[in-house]
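thought: fold this chain, then report.
action: predict
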Amino acid sequence: MKNNFYEIIELSLSDYPLDVTGVRKIIFYNSIESTGTVVEMYYNDISSLVDTLPIMGGETLKINIVDQYQNEIDLEFVLTDFSHIYQKDGLHSVVKFKAIEKKSLLLSTERINKYWEQTTISTIIEEIDDTIEIEQTSNKQIVDILIPGWSKTKTISYLSNIAFSDTYGSYYLFFQTIEGKMLFIPINKMFDINEVNAYQLNNRNPYYRYNIHEMDVTRNVDVISNMYDNVFEKEYVTYIPDMKTTITKNINLTDTMNDVIDLESGSIIGNDLEQLSQNIKTHEAIPFYDPLSIEPQTKNQIQYNIFQKEIEVLLNGDFGVKVGDVLFLDLKDIRQHTEQNKIRAGCWAIKNIAYHISDGDFKIKARLVRESIYESEKDYPGKILNVSISN
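observation:
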């Protein structure tokens, strides 16, 4: 099945070819918090597929699709769920398939029972599966570790919580992209960009590759929670990656909510609450620890501090856009809500992504996260592509 946005080249279930014209919807899901690609497919059961095949679960679902930019995915999934959805007339039905990418499923089922002595974490992961793309961990971080029959997925996820990168000064994530690649990378590597495409909100051409159709703020750090008796006091912590330290402030929000006051010095430290909240990483004071001695649970707490600000965007379909990628939101052309768009402009990393293919259309829904405020491409000299020409 071919249209202007994608072409389904091959579709089969355990070597039984499926008519690609029967596809009503396909959705692929990826997340930096998940180790496997999940797919949902809705299929018109014109040929009574249920009666034709003895579907029991565990069958291989093969999907090969090329998008309009010639990005191709060719993956095998293992069927985990299968159900009927009947239409209103009660005569026609749609079959819903749910499946997980085969390699990620194997990693979650294969077990490890081994003791490593005085070994680097990256060496351990290479022994577990040499196809995982690894950014080397700290050579100073030598571990003695016993894995008591855990799955490979659980083992590598655990190692991501204790590993540290000297190069990037951060902890690790373990996840899979739409291409089927398994990545073990430091968080800060996501923001270490060489070149990044700029996306424009509501470009005049809706089919422009880098157009943002919709943008919604999904979560802000709430610095004024637990207010009582008109007293707005809150402790917040700003984490400064370059200095590898934290700064703790006690703040008071005035009755008019116009000024934010540092209670220690009595000085006004800001009058734009939303902009100020961009720098707030947590509600609790977390001192900076030596990364080689810090406890895993504390690492996890710091690791997710960067995910305190999120937005959701709707983009044109493009398999070249993957979870963990960084996008630059170029919002200079927007005339309304100028201050809000200044805050939202800049580089964001893709935390969750869903590729929606249906009715001859292809869109991406993505949830983005970031660590800092950047108002223009000038903060990234020579790195931002496709910026708008207006000021």
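thought: worth noting. The mean pLDDT is 75.
final: tokens above.
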